[in-house]
Amino acid sequence: xxxxxxxxxxxxxxxxxxxxxxxxxxxxxxxxxxxxxxxxxxxxxxxxxxxxxxxxxxxxxxxxxxxxxxxxxxxxxxxxxxxxxxxxxxxxxxxxxxxxxxxxxxxxxxxxxxxxxxxxxxxxxxxxxxxxxxxxxxxxxxxxxxxxxxxxxxxxxxxxxxxxxxxxxxxxxxxxxxxxxxxxxxxxxxxxxxxxxxxxxxxxxxxxxxxxxxxxxxxxxxxxxxxxxxxxxxxxxxxxxxxxxxxxxxxxxxxxxxxxxxxxxxxxxxxxxxxxxxxxxxxxxxxxxxxxxxxxxxxxxxxxxxxxxxxxxxxxxxxxxxxxxxxxxxxxxxxxxxxxxxxxxxxxxxxxxxxxxxxxxxxxxxxxxxxxxxxxxxxxxxxxxxxxxxxxxxxxxxxxxxxxxxxxxxxxxx
Length: 414
Known about the structure:
Alpha-Beta Plaits, 2 domains, eight-stranded mixed β-sheet, 11 helices
């Protein structure tokens, strides 16, 4: 087995950076308000490009299905089947249209200044100090970059390039999927799991060099509907029950210490995400998060208790709480498959990197896919500051992700 650990070789012998720069210029922003799959038709623009490139690399069964999932198979030179996944969409939080990637070669450790007063500084990005001498890639400051997760796509493609050039390397049959709508939590919703046919998979969708994720939040969504009594405000005394006013009371009772702004590491939270309606009836949307699923369920019970207390104070008010499961901490299932994380840890070490096991304060496609029966931890893709104009990635970090993938597929073939 060959240990891949030279990023310069990857940058010299693959088109990983060229591919990345090409992909980020294609607008693939997803839309949480759309009911279609993919949520935006423009995700097909990248899907079609990837289909052509996968065919050029000689993979079998290359297609994009009606829901926007790009599928391909590389027959193995060793035993087993392994899946690799990256997502095509970018976050709705910030524009991904007309991305103009900027290259900052031989980075010297100083602040990077972009348009609109956007500054990426080492003070806020200590990873930059580990990237001196690298080429740093950013947007021009008016859009996000799209390293989340087009870096992951480019890295998988570069790994396939290297396997084509090195047929002596043993690897299992590789099942590749580039999926839509990860950023709005729907990546696995129409995932062709049976057709994909991989018992184990890895998403390439993590952060800076060495990061590996085998644990995520458990997540629920909550909708609280307030129904009051609508009366003309001129004659409302003793009669009106303003639904918006009572929504405000609930918001005031949510513990500020358990909000995203006040929590970190393994602390969970309540997070209001949207409101709509009027004085007669209104709706509050929240997300509930915690690493411990039992604590998460208790958050839901506490929310319902708050609603019941409001109705006890105002009997004419109706408050309905609906809670929907979104995803669960992948660690619960991965604990039954320790070799999946062990193989990834070994692959990172073979690349000359110290693995950084980090619990994600969020979720990945792997959260839901693991719950669906396909253990799917997450591998670093190299990017930092996702979902905004300060997003950046290092060429060396991307190359080391390719090294890690080459090591991983060899380990999986043992």
